[in-house]
Design brief:
The complex is a heterodimer of chains A (389) and B (263). With 389 residues, chain A is an alpha/beta fold. In chain A, strands 3, 4, 9, 10, 13, 14 and 15 form a 7-stranded mixed beta sheet that branches. Chain A has a 4-stranded antiparallel beta sheet with strand order 1-2-12-11. Chain A has a 4-stranded parallel beta sheet with strand order 7-6-5-8, sandwiched between helices. Chain A is globular, with a radius of gyration of 19 Å. Chain B is of the alpha/beta class. Chain B has a single domain, classed as TIM Barrel (Alpha-Beta Barrel). Chain B has 12 helices and 9 strands. The relative contact order of chain B is 0.18. The chains are: A alpha/beta (389), B alpha/beta (263). At the A-B interface, strand 2, helix 1, helix 8 and strand 11 of A face helix 3, helix 5 and strand 6 of B. The complex binds pyridoxal-5'-phosphate.
């Protein structure tokens, strides 16, 4: 088993740890203890799965792409996280953390969001569990994703635009951390990916493990075996960690696809920001750089520490794809299978399409982390009505 | 070498002033911000006992809006760790200097190299607010090897079980974080300010200085009923942001100095 618990210091190999202001250290310790205890309590685990099933729509189906498989010569199976309530895998983690926060007696959730998917999921859980909710979002993203801002407001959350730094996801994380430093007594920071200080990377992966667990059983049933490859997109890396964790002890190749403009693992420079030691895009003196890609949800200059570890030991590989390849994959899945993917998820498919020649006859399990409704406006601008028509 | 055997320059300097009956005043100034060199010299001349020089970082997670803005403007003006540090030996202050920056700027070049650069740039101590005590061992060791003191932050939330070790590991002084929150002036001194200082004083005889949320000379006097001194940052930097320049900083520091001396 490769994806096991981190060590006592929250390290996966040399990556991870707890690099946050002293003020937050006790909160991280308290959270770790509460999580261990809750995950050991069958009533908590049952409540988690009941909500994911009856409210979230799990288990998500495994869809075989017959037309696309024929076209590419690669047998493609999609794990349909796009069919979850709120439209992506994010809800798994958020339900887990919100239940845990409630169990810890916290009454307020704060979250960061890029594209708005994690913000919407957090606002949804807060509404469901009657908690106060504040979402920080870079001012650039507030303007790019107006629809998701309104969705969060409809759900009763307060959305605050962040105008510091690059005004995008990384700055939203900073602002959420600053909020948490001041409000730690009644507030839980509902982090949206397998990043941040220990125990977040491990805890968030554990809440998403359900993706890999279901997919493995579904593959065994359908294939009477395991897929040759498991492929997922990587921003912070939560949907990838969730699905990889169902297969890390097998022979399946694990492939995490990064955007070319946000290839933290691809560049492989270690750094420390947002509470963790991991790979980090930074300039020659160590200032953190902005990630830039067509999908706001992958515009993150870091990556979860467990991915840095899996890459460093050679268990998983992290290639990157260009925006143009993503745009083509987005259209391809729409037209051949009638599924409009999130631009984030389209990164995973873009890699399969590019590599198809070397994957002939193989079985690829692809995590379709989200649906593309949120991206339709943006793609209309990119493609123009005529080209699509 | 072991920094705990003999106090370094920062700690020795502050201890002697404290033991002579003075309350300590440390001023933070963002390095690389236009006019920062003159502000540092003026702050020292107006009565600061040590200067904290900020090396601006892209993601200053422990800082509120004022220091964030100064850092960002400094970065936009081209400030780098090298450009800030290269200037320090030319500054005429007569007091010890600490750098205040974020851990990645030490991690990226490597602990030994960053510590050596500090030591050769007229820096006595380092404050890294996103490097908590539990993660600080390797850095403290590398820093101590070249005589750089590492000032640890003690938070209102730090449990007693860790506070003793944390104060023991701190060198230069102990930075008592006055409130739950990031840097910035507040209307009133938080009750946590004197609580955390008292808890630190209870476990160490190193100088204990309270920072974060000290906005006025009155706050400083109140905090110093318990603490050995205060650190003022946003109040100073706000003078620079609003264009008051070194003179504005000098007047501000003098007003704190007078209030602390009057006690
Ligand atoms: C649909 C979808 N997939 C993937 C991601 C990236 O996150 P992660 O890498 O944590 O899965 C996002 C983030 O917003 C998303 O909305």
């Amino acid at each position: 088993m490769v994806m096991t618990d981190p060590n006592k210091e929250g390290r996966f190999g040399e990556f991870g740890g707890r690099f946050v202001p002293e003020t937050l250290i006790p909160a991280c310790e308290e959270l770790e203890e509460a999580f261990r205890e809750a995950w050991d309590d069958s009533a908590f685990v049952e409540q988690f799965h009941t909500i994911l099933n009856d409210y979230g729509g799990r288990p998500s189906p495994l869809t075989e792409c017959f037309r696309l498989s024929e076209q590419l010569g690669v047998r493609i199976l999609l794990k349909r996280e796009d069919l979850n309530h709120t439209g992506s895998h994010k809800i798994n983690n958020v339900i887990g953390q919100a239940l845990l926060a409630q169990r810890m007696g916290k009454t307020r959730l704060v979250a960061e969001t890029g594209a708005g998917q994690h913000g919407v999921a957090t606002a949804t859980a807060a509404a469901l569990l009657d908690m106060e909710c504040k979402v920080y979002m870079g001012q650039v993203d507030v303007e790019r994703q107006a629809l998701n801002v309104f969705r969060m407001q409809l759900l009763g959350a307060e959305v605050e635009g962040v105008s510091s730094g690059s005004k995008t996801l990384k700055d939203a994380v900073n602002e959420a951390l600053r909020d948490w430093v001041a409000t730690v007594e009644n507030t839980h920071y509902c982090l949206g990916s397998v990043m941040g200080p220990h125990p977040y990377p491990w805890m968030v992966r554990t809440f998403h493990h359900v993706i890999g667990e279901e997919a493995r059983a579904q593959c065994l049933k359908l294939l009477d075996g395991l897929p040759d490859l498991v492929v997922a997109c990587v921003g912070g890396g939560s949907n990838a960690a969730g699905i990889f964790s169902g297969f890390s002890d097998t022979e399946s190749r694990l492939v995490g696809v990064e955007p070319a403009g946000g290839a933290a693992v691809g560049r492989g420079v270690p750094g420390v920001v947002h509470g963790m030691a991991s790979y980090l895009m930074q300039d020659e003196v160590g200032q953190v750089q902005e990630a830039e890609s067509i999908s706001a949800g992958l515009d993150y200059p870091g990556v979860g520490p467990e991915h840095a570890y899996l890459s460093s030991i050679g268990r998983a590989e992290y290639p990157s794809v260009s925006d143009q390849e993503v745009i083509e994959a987005f259209q391809l899945l729409s037209k051949t299978e009638g599924i409009i993917p999130a631009l984030e998820s389209a990164h995973a498919l873009a890699w399969v399409v590019r590599e198809a020649a070397s994957l002939q006859g193989q079985v690829v399990l692809l995590n379709l982390s989200g649906r593309g409704d949120k991206d339709v406006d943006q793609m209309m601008e990119v493609l123009g009505m005529d080209e699509v028509g | 070498m072991n920094s705990e055997l003999a106090p370094g320059r920062m700690e020795g300097f502050l201890r002697s002033r404290r033991d002579a009956g003075s309350k300590l005043l440390v001023a933070y100034i963002t390095g690389g911000f236009e006019g920062w060199e003159a502000a540092v010299e003026t702050a020292a001349a107006a009565g600061a006992d040590a200067i904290e020089i900020g090396i601006p970082f892209s993601d200053p997670v422990m800082d509120g809006p004022v220091i964030q803005e100064a850092s960002q403007r400094a970065l936009e003006g081209g400030a780098t760790p090298a450009s800030v540090l290269a200037t320090v030996p030319n500054l005429d202050t007569g007091v010890p200097h600490a750098v205040m920056t974020y851990y990645n700027l030490a991690h990226h070049p490597g602990h030994d190299r960053f510590a050596a650069t500090l030591a050769s740039s007229g820096i006595d101590a380092a404050i890294l607010p996103d490097l908590p005590f539990v993660e600080s061992g390797p850095w403290r060791h590398a820093a101590a090897n070249v005589g750089i003191e590492t000032i640890m932050l003690a938070a209102p939330t730090t449990p007693d079980a860790r506070l003793g070790e944390l104060c023991e590991a701190s060198s230069g002084f102990v930075y008592a974080v006055g409130l739950l929150g990031v840097t910035g002036e507040r209307a009133q001194l938080a009750s946590t300010a004197t609580e955390i200082a008292a808890r630190c004083k209870g476990v160490t005889d190193k100088p204990v200085l309270t920072g974060v949320g000290i906005g006025s000379p009155e706050h400083a006097v109140e905090a110093c009923e318990v603490a050995d001194g205060v650190i003022i940052g946003s109040a100073v930097v706000r003078r620079l942001l609003s264009g008051d320049g070194a003179d504005g900083v000098g007047e501000l520091i003098a007003s704190f100095r007078d209030a602390l001396d009057a006690g």
